[in-house]
Specification:
The complex is a heterodimer of chains A (189) and B (312).
Chain A lengths: L2 E3 L8 E4 L2 E11 L7 E8 L5 E7 L3 E3 L3 E11 L4 E4 L6 E4 L1 H4 L11 E7 L2 E6 L3 E9 L13 E5 L4 E4 L8 E5 L4 E6 L2
Antiparallel strand pairs in A: 1-6, 2-3, 3-4, 4-5, 7-8, 7-10, 8-9, 10-11, 12-13, 12-15, 13-14, 15-16
Chain B lengths: L11 H20 L3 E2 L5 E2 L11 E3 L3 E3 L4 H9 L5 E8 L11 E10 L3 H16 L3 E5 H9 L8 H10 L8 H16 L5 E8 L8 E3 L5 E10 L2 E8 L4 H17 L9 H10 L3 E7 H9 L16
Parallel strand pairs in B: 1-5, 7-8
Antiparallel strand pairs in B: 2-4, 3-4, 5-6, 6-12, 8-10, 9-10, 10-11, 11-12
Helix pairs in contact in B: 2-8, 4-6, 5-6, 7-8
Classes of the chains: A mainly beta (189), B alpha+beta (312).
């Protein structure tokens, strides 16, 4: 893997720090007078999600991390692993619970996801920003309520629970924003 | 690429404010009988400073990191007091407060000692910034804020203090002082006043004269001016001794080599000009975009510079 000098640091760059792959969030250049320059860097540890702050002497370099974001199709889960397929190569990768994390409540078979691969293995999974899922359980709502005030909980086919307007019924398919976990609208058949 | 990326990043108001600032600066020097000059941005030689890297133009030489060498040649040739609003270029300096290409207002005053030049800087800045001024000596200010004497504390004590403030391990004494100055001392300054810091540590003399402090420690006849959290200007009582200048060039190159950087050929024209005789003088370089940022309250240089480097 190539190494990157501080002058190449920019947000999104993936680097190895203390043995873990990290992604730069912010890079601030500090230079006093005519003296030694420093880069104060905020990084996210891609394994743990923790944000780290570190200062480097300008000119220092760090090893790049073999991290790739790939669009892959979610195929199925065997209970222990969630399996993803590269639609171009048909290459399949199993992702463990740590890698899938909170994304699992939004995973519907055949949906396309962003899978972050580290040394070729899934490190994390981002679901599509919007998913369409069927409501498997919700209490009957009051007819005539269209304003959606208040709402009620609804359990989706993936097990996720979201608040939906009162008029939305069991068996309907709804659109959800996975970034906020909020109901967006009904999908009409 | 975004469709709007051809557009300037800075507001049109900022362009007008810059034009006003340039007019004010020219009127200030005109009234004081200081001659405006223009010197080359592209030249055969460039600075040898350990921490400043010039941008090479293959087949032509180097983009100048400041107009200092050329202006000193004018002074040695008898120009009298001169100023310049010059584009300067420094490799690798990019961030919220840095752009690799920027503008220096640089001026030289034959017959002025450091204090006289500080007075003139404040005569320019006090009305512009509508702020009062405070003067500090580097050593006392650093000691007051960090608890350590930058000139007599051990390198290990300075490095420990810097590491405690988030610095990487293994800094040399001067590197630790640089780090603490930028990250601990500067943020502790009152942003509402114009702060002048004089008499930097001797190792940071660059092209300034040095003098002995009360206890014999070497200090540089150098000042910096800060306002609203920004470093605005850097001035020297200028070194006149050509032999000492040649020794500093050689030392710079030793440090550059030790840091894995390419050594720079000392500028023979500058050394010859010093041998011919630079009149006793003081000079200062003020970052014009920084001043514009301080005046407008901008937090990023992009707000006062129409096209950021990735869209220029």
């Amino acid at each position: 893997m190539a190494s990157y000098s501080t002058s190449e640091f920019k947000s999104g760059l993936k680097l190895m720090l203390d043995g873990d792959p990290c992604s730069i969030i912010e890079n601030e250049f500090v230079k006093p007078g005519k003296g030694q320059a420093f880069n104060r860097v905020k990084l996210r540890n891609l394994k743990t999600g923790k944000v780290i702050e570190r200062t480097f002497k300008s000119g220092d370099s760090l090893e790049g991390a073999d991290v790739l974001d790939v669009t892959m199709q979610y195929i199925y889960s065997d209970g222990e692993f969630w399996h993803f397929m590269d639609p171009n190569t048909f290459d399949q990768k199993p992702a463990g619970a740590d890698a899938v994390g909170d994304a699992k409540q939004w995973l519907k078979e055949e949906d396309m996801c962003e899978v972050t691969l580290y040394n070729g293995e899934p490190l994390s999974v981002s679901p599509p920003n919007f998913v369409e899922l069927e409501i498997t359980q919700t209490d009957p709502g009051v007819k005539g309520d269209t304003a959606g005030t208040g709402g009620k909980p609804a359990t989706l086919s993936t097990g996720a629970v979201v608040r939906v307007p009162l008029f939305v019924q069991e068996g309907e398919v709804i659109k959800v924003d996975t970034r906020t976990g909020e109901y967006v609208g009904r999908i009409k058949n | 690429m975004n469709d709007a990326s051809w557009r300037p990043g800075a507001a049109l108001d900022a362009l007008k404010a810059r034009a006003d600032l340039l007019r004010t600066v020219r009127a200030f020097f005109d009234a004081r009988g200081v001659l405006e000059v223009s010197t080359p941005s592209l030249a055969a030689h460039a600075v040898s400073d350990e921490h400043i890297d010039a941008i090479e133009v293959p087949g032509h030489g180097w983009l100048q990191t400041s107009p200092e060498y050329h202006m000193k040649r004018l002074l040695a040739a008898g120009s009298g007091p001169i100023y310049q609003i010059a584009r300067a270029f420094r490799d690798g300096e990019a961030g919220a407060r840095h752009n690799p290409e920027f503008t220096l207002l640089e001026w030289y005053r034959p017959g002025f000692d450091l204090e006289a030049l500080v007075d003139e800087c404040l005569a320019l800045l006090t009305p512009l910034c509508a702020a009062g001024a405070e003067r500090h000596r580097f050593r006392a200010l650093f000691r007051e804020v960090t608890g350590l004497d930058p000139l007599t504390a051990t390198a290990a004590a300075l490095a420990d203090r810097a590491t405690g403030a988030g610095a990487p391990a293994g800094l040399s004494g001067p590197q630790a002082v640089d780090y603490l100055m930028a990250t601990v001392v500067e943020p502790a300054l009152d942003p509402a006043v114009i702060t002048v810091v004089v008499d930097f540590p001797g190792w940071a003399a660059a092209l300034a004269q040095t003098a002995g402090d009360d206890d014999g420690a070497t200090v540089a006849r150098r000042f910096e001016i800060y306002h609203r959290g920004l470093e605005l200007a850097n001035g020297y009582q200028e070194l006149l001794d050509a032999d000492e200048q040649a020794r500093r060039f050689a030392r710079d190159n030793e440090k550059r080599l030790a840091a894995g950087k390419r050594p720079m050929t000392p500028d023979p024209y500058l050394l010859d000009a010093l041998r011919a005789g630079l009149p006793p003088c003081s000079g200062v370089a003020l970052g014009l975009e920084r001043l514009h940022m301080a005046l407008s309250g901008a937090g990023r240089i992009d707000q006062v510079w129409p096209f950021p480097r990735d869209r220029a």
